[in-house]
Amino acid sequence: MRLTITFLIVFTNILSAQIKGVVKDSISGKPIPYVSIWIENDNIGTTSEENGTFELNTSKDKKMMFSNVGYHKKTATLNSNNEILLKPKSIELDNVEIIKLKKSESLTIGNSVFKRVNYLQGKFPQILAKKFDYDSIYKKTPYLKEVEVFTQSEIKNATFKLRILLHDTINDIPLIDLANEDIIVTVKKGRNKTKIDVSKYKIKFPENGVAIGLESMIVESNKYIYSYKYNGVNNDSVVFAPAVICNYVEEQNAYHFLSTKWMKRKPNYNEKEEKYLVLEPAINLVLTN
Predict the structure, then answer these.
(1) DSSP 3-state assignment of 58?
(2) Which of 5, 138, 172, 257 has its CA 20 to 30 A from that of 73?
(3) Which of 25, 57, 86 is the last residue of a domain?
(4) Is the bond leading into 242 cis (omega within 30 degrees of zero)?
(5) Domain of 198, in residue numbers
(6) Number of independent structural domains in the chain
(7) pTM of the predicted model, to two decimals?
(8) Which of 25, 52, 86 is the last residue of a domain?
(9) What is the pLDDT of residues 17-31, one digit of tens each?
């Protein structure tokens, strides 16, 4: 089946300055790789490289938000060259229960497949997420074992961050990271279903539900030129791999983190199916005991 390409094009104002800097651990002083960096209330952002450095074209008076799993978020107004220090989150060790998973049973939930749409990640960090609601049948296999992700990549060894998030039922958005570290996933070139083992985190399926997010990484190793034709004119644009396979579904369990805020994806009318459908990232979840 031929895939339809959904491409997010963002128009921005004339940029006035190149902001450079490095993100470091406030205690150890070591660079922090792959920190997500957003301009507050704007569709501009980047990701720190493996050595913690970053560059971004924006106005100097703009506020920037720095976010990474295992660290407290930080908002700062930057100059031309900057050193950003992130404070590590403390891990509470009191009353920790030692759990050994049996892994004698497994259950796959999600029903995602290879079809319909590639969602190109664009030019700034964003998260596409899918919520999984709790069901009492999960009591026999209550722990998260694997995440299955469907991608399309034009380059070898493209990377993204996997986020495992507790769902906030009051505000109906993904909220708290359930893993205490970055989960960096590497995918092969072409169309692939990648299985990510998350059993070591021993995450029990929350009764509030869990959201699995795919966060784009705006780093040099993911960059490539995307060529397309618009109104009969050939165009080239810099984008970042991998593209996420999405499915059209009736359920409204898809979310999008953009411009420092979560949004629930709304249904749009699909002329081929003659009904309203939601574009949802193709993600399955494997549970175990």
Answers:
(1) coil
(2) 172
(3) 86
(4) yes
(5) 106-288
(6) 2
(7) 0.88
(8) 86
(9) 788 999 999 999 999
Strand, coil or helix: what is 221?
Answer: helix
Q: What are phi and psi of 165, to 5 degrees?
A: -125, 135
Which pLDDT tens digit goes with each residue over 225-275? 988 888 889 988 889 999 999 999 999 999 999 878 899 999 999 888 899
Closest CA to 47 of 274, 254, 221: 221
In a domain, 24, yes or no: yes
* Cα 136 from chain centroid (whole Å): 28
Phi, psi of 150 (to 5 degrees): -105, 125
* Positive or negative torsion for Cα 270, 266, 236, 11: positive
Rounded Cα distance, 59 and 19, in Å: 8
Residue 56 · residue 18 · CB < 8 Å: yes
CB 48 within 8 A of CB 54: yes
Give yes or no for a contact between 175 and 165, defined as CB atoms under 8 angstroms apart.
yes
- Whether 81 and 113 share a structural domain: no
How far is Cα 193 from Cα 126, in angstroms, rounded to an integer? 21
In angstroms, the Cα distances linking 260 to 41, 188, 204 are 7, 29, 28
72/202 same-domain check? no
Do residues 78 and 131 share a domain? Answer: no
- Rounded Cα distance, 36 and 29, in Å: 18
